[in-house]
């Protein structure tokens, strides 16, 4: 996120007197540059210039020597708060006494003094305090304490504004040091979208501020004296034999030498301060100048130690196996797609100097002994730089700009500006000639109908507004006849390639606020769809049962299928593989909700939860198979119905599923004792709750299915549209191996069902049943059946046998054991009978009971248990 100091911005565009960071941020937001943060003044309170009147070194018991300093801070501030016992040797005028541990100053020096009441960066408040036997009435400040970074002089100590009474020093004791050092500067941090790379510079932001306010903009590029024409400078060869998208990796390369630079030359304080305000750490004069010019113009630069470079400089693709130790001291294996800067004619013995547009190598790094440098300013292809930066996980300030597009006309200007600054502050001599290989690629013209902006945006734009907006952003606009404009974008806007890009600029420059917000009117009486209401009912049913809804990413690892014990031919192994996954270890889309829900349960338990009761409603995807290929229809026309059908047929089979995981205690402890633990029966109960909430019915049949425990799980079935049963999910206790793998509570259970299919199985119209006013009759039945007979089949037989008198049938007990024999089970049902015509007699109840027993025996072979 670029940081824009207002004083720096004001050098390129006219800011109103007293303009605040908030106002500037508001103005920039009108043209699409959103405020990320506003950084206020770094220092507040009485920070003043002081002159050292006297200092006395005082050794301490800890081996440290401190200075007891008398400082003149001007008549307004020389009201000492010292102890009366503190000596003022030989001083006739008032002063303040301050304890200071630095030793890089002497009597007569001008220093920066923070008086009591000053607040330094980091919310560090200054107050008079007793220390080392004195009352220190303030603090003499270093550059780091003021947020200015390290002292450019390289000394470890306080800031010395002037030595003695040297000529040229205009500051006097008592002067405001905040204004003198620029510490009152406000900074606006903005968010730049990927298509606005030119705004990673003061030049670009100043131009945008001019667009927003109409303030006068002065392009800093026009004030630079360009280096001499190329011809005899550094030998540079462009040899990209594997361009990306038929575009060379480097279209222009400028090299400019500066010789005889003073290695001890320091970065001027104003430049170091600006770099710090912009979020960069001052390092050395040469490096700081390249960074300063990059922040100002937007053109990344790189400086080589000329004595370490063997001409010619060659720009080429990497050879397989080549390595480079970059400036971050990491040795990297290069990829053949990487564009490199090399020397020694690019032969087998050539050294790699850096990854183009990303980072240089340590072999030719400028150091404290560098006297001769070669400045590089180039135009690199954005895709090439972006791929290298991501491939090596090496984001840099340079790559951030190159991958968004840099003005191809800047290299010679930026190199000239940097060379001039280095020569000015480092005493070097700029070479007589520069090297400028390659050419500037001119942008393609775009044809725009004058009425296109109105048709796309929906509001009226006059021809003058259309032409004026495009010319304001730097476009050349020519008349193409018949209401058509021929627009050539400026060199710094590589993002303008289509008619729609120009329309967006017109809307932005005329003003987004001019576009009315018109919301569509919702037709009355429709409300939620049946499916939407059903999903909400299912959601509410599980929440009311005590579960918590969670959200999990749909991405899973390929190993999850083995972890969940899927068989080799299981359809749930047919997952969609992503070409560009968020994480390399999770490249697949889930085929089952439990694949992502179980890791969420493990994470919650690992963070202190003692039980788990979670659910999620989300989509799952099953791949169509290797033979499914989506066609690529032409963009010039709408796809045909056949093409659309083929496209849809190649998409993964998706459905909205409901999944839940429960385990551990079902509630908190109380005086009544420990609560019951969640179990397999609860998983089935939750499935029935969800079904009842949407108006559907589920049948349960015992099966073995991963990842569930054999014998403690079942499939969930509905009656399909064809009247045949259809499996839509499973529920039960999880397999012990799965429980162990995910560190779940013992006997944790789960369920998963196809929610869309469940909702579709519900009747479209629910008819209200009449309520009988006659009394209820109760009968209980216990039938012994084979283990393979589902309880739902017995229930259905009971309903058929009893007929219309059956008001409710409920299974309340399942028993297996020696009393009924192997391979059999006893199912006990509570049956409620009621007639709508009168009170049931004993004979009618007896007849209904007999019909029930006979029907169960005929339908499922059930025998009434004695």
Automatic annotation (TrEMBL):
Residues 76-96 are annotated as: Disordered. Binds 2 magnesium ions per tetramer. It comes from the Bacteria. The keyword Transcription does not apply. It is found in: Cytoplasm. Residues 772-865 form the FDX-ACB domain. One of its GO terms (molecular function) is phenylalanine-tRNA ligase activity. Keywords: Aminoacyl-tRNA synthetase, ATP-binding, Cytoplasm, Ligase, Magnesium, Metal-binding, Nucleotide-binding, Protein biosynthesis, RNA-binding, tRNA-binding. Tetramer of two alpha and two beta subunits. Belongs to the phenylalanyl-tRNA synthetase beta subunit family. Type 1 subfamily. PANTHER family: PHENYLALANINE--TRNA LIGASE BETA SUBUNIT (PTHR10947:SF0), PHENYLALANYL-TRNA SYNTHETASE BETA CHAIN AND LEUCINE-RICH REPEAT-CONTAINING PROTEIN 47 (PTHR10947). This is Phenylalanine--tRNA ligase beta subunit. The gene is pheT.
């Amino acid at each position: 996120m670029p940081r824009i100091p207002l004083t720096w911005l004001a050098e390129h565009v006219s800011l109103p007197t007293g303009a605040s960071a908030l106002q500037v941020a508001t103005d920039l937001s009108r043209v699409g540059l959103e405020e990320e943060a506003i950084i206020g003044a770094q220092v507040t309170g009485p920070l003043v210039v002081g002159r050292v009147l006297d200092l006395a070194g005082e050794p301490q018991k800890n081996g440290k020597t401190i200075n007891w300093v008398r400082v003149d801070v001007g008549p307004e501030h020389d009201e000492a708060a010292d102890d009366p016992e503190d000596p003022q040797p030989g001083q006739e005028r008032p002063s303040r006494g301050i304890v200071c541990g630095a030793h890089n100053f002497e009597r007569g020096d001008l220093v920066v003094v923070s008086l009591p009441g000053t607040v330094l960066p980091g919310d560090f408040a200054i107050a008079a305090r007793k220390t080392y036997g004195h009352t220190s009435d303030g603090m003499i400040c270093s550059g780091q304490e003021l947020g200015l970074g390290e002292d450019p002089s390289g000394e470890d100590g306080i800031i010395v504004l002037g030595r003695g009474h040297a000529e040229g020093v205009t500051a006097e004791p008592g002067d405001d040091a905040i204004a003198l050092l620029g510490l009152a500067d406000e900074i606006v941090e903005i968010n730049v979208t990927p298509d606005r790379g030119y705004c990673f510079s003061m030049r670009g932001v100043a131009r945008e501020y001019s667009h927003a306010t109409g303030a006068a903009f002065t392009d800093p590029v026009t004030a630079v004296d360009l280096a001499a024409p190329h011809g005899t400078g550094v030998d540079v060869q462009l040899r990209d034999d594997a361009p990306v998208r038929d575009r060379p990796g480097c279209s222009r390369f400028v090299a400019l030498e500066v010789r005889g630079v003073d290695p001890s030359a320091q970065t001027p304080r104003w430049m170091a301060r600006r770099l710090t305000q912009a979020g960069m750490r001052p390092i050395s004069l040469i490096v700081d100048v390249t960074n300063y010019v990059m922040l100002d113009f937007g053109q990344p630069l790189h400086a080589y130690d000329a004595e370490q470079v063997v001409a010619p400089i060659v720009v080429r693709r990497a050879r397989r196996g080549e390595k480079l130790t970059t400036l971050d001291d990491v040795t990297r294996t290069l990829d053949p797609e990487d564009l490199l800067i090399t020397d020694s004619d690019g032969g087998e013995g050539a050294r790699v100097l850096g990854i183009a547009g990303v980072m240089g190598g340590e072999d030719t790094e400028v150091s404290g002994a560098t006297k001769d440098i070669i400045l590089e300013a180039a135009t690199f292809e954005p895709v090439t730089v972006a791929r290298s930066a991501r491939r090596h996980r090496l984001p840099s300030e340079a790559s951030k700009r190159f991958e968004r597009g840099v003005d191809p006309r800047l290299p010679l200007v930026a190199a000239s500006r940097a060379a001039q600054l280095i020569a000015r502050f480092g005493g070097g001599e700029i070479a007589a000639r520069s090297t400028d290989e390659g050419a500037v690629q001119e942008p393609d013209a775009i044809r725009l109908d004058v009425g296109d902006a109105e048709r796309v945006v929906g509001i009226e734009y006059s021809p003058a507004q259309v032409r004026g907006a495009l010319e304001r952003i730097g476009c050349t606009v020519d008349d193409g006849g018949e209401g058509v404009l021929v627009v050539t974008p400026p060199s710094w806007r590589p993002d303008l390639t289509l008619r729609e890009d120009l329309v967006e600029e017109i809307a932005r420059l005329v003003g987004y606020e001019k576009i009315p917000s018109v919301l569509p009117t919702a037709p009355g009486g429709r409300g939620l769809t049946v499916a939407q209401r059903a999903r909400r009912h299912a959601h509410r049913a599980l929440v009311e049962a005590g579960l918590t809804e969670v959200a999990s990413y749909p991405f899973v690892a390929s190993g999850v299928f083995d972890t969940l014990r899927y068989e080799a031919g299981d359809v749930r192994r047919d997952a969609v593989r992503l070409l560009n996954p968020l994480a390399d270890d999770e490249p697949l889309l889930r085929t089952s909700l439990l694949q992502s829900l179980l890791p969420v349960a493990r994470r919650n338990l690992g963070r202190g939860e003692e039980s788990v009761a979670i659910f999620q409603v989300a989509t799952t995807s099953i791949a169509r198979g290797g033979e499914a290929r989506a066609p690529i229809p032409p963009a010039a026309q709408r796809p045909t119905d056949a093409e659309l059908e083929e496209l849809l047929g190649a998409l993964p089979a998706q459905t909205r599923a409901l999944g839940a995981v429960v385990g551990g205690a079902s509630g908190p402890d109380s005086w009544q004792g420990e609560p019951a633990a969640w179990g397999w029966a609860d998983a089935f109960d939750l499935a029935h709750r969800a079904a009842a909430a949407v108006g559907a019915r589920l049948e349960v049949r015992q099966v073995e299915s991963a990842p569930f425990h054999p014998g403690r799980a079942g499939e969930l079935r509905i009656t399909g549209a064809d009247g045949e049963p259809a499996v839509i999910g499973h529920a039960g206790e999880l397999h012990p191996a799965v429980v162990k793998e995910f560190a779940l509570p013992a006997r944790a259970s789960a369920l998963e069902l196809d929610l869309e299919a469940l909702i579709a199985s519900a009747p479209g119209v629910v008819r209200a049943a009449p309520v009988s006013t006659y009394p209820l009759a109760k009968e209980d039945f216990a039938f012994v059946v084979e283990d393979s007979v589902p309880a739902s089949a017995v229930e259905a037989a009971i309903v058929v046998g009893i007929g219309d008198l059956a008001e409710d049938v409920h299974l309340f007990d399942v028993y297996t054991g020696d009393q009924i024999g192997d391979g059999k089970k006893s199912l006990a049902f509570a049956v409620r009978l009621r007639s709508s015509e009168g009170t049931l007699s004993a004979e009618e109840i007896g007849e209904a009971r007999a019909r029930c027993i006979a029907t169960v025996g005929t339908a499922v072979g059930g025998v009434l248990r004695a």
